[in-house]
Amino acid sequence: MLATIAKQLRSHPALIPLFIFIGGGATMSMLYLARLALRNPAVSWDHKNNPEPWNNLPPDHQYKLFSINTDYSKLKKDRPDF
Q1: Which of 34, 5, 1 is nearest to 18 (CA)?
Q2: What's the whole-model pTM score?
Q3: 56 and 81 housed in the same domain
Q4: Which of 26, 61, 66, 82 is found 20 to 30 A from 11 (Cα to Cα)?
Q5: How far apart are CA 64 and CA 73, in angstroms?
Q6: Number of domains in the chain
């Protein structure tokens, strides 16, 4: 399969940017999915030791990838302790 792709790229060099951008997009989407699975507070991998990890977060913890209007360092605690 890789030999066929290499043969097509040699005969049609205009396909090289297409492969680069498709590969880059696939890589970035996989990295984002891995970040969501590992860093999101709503995901719990260890149900025995920490069944509700979102209750242990401080109020100024920024868990979103990009925040436009919220300054997380100035937030105060607005939820009860469980």
Answers
A1: 5
A2: 0.59
A3: yes
A4: 26
A5: 14
A6: 2
Q: State how far the Cα of 15 lies from the Cα of 34, in Å rounded to an integer.
A: 29
Tens digits of residue pLDDT in 8-26: 889 999 999 999 999 999 9
Q: Which two tokens stand for residue 59?
A: 């109020």
**SS3 letters across the chain:** CHHHHHHHHHHCHHHHHHHHHHHHHHHHHHHHHHHHHHHCCCCCCCCCCCCCHHHHCCCCCCCCCCCCCCCHHHCCCCCCCC
Residue with tokens 């990890």: 53
Task: Please choose, from the candidates 60, 48, 59, the residue with its C-alpha nearest in 3D space to the C-alpha of residue 81.
Answer: 59
Average pLDDT over residues 38-48: 80
Q: Which amino acid is at 81?
A: D
Per the structure, the complete domain to which residue 13 belongs is given by: 1-39
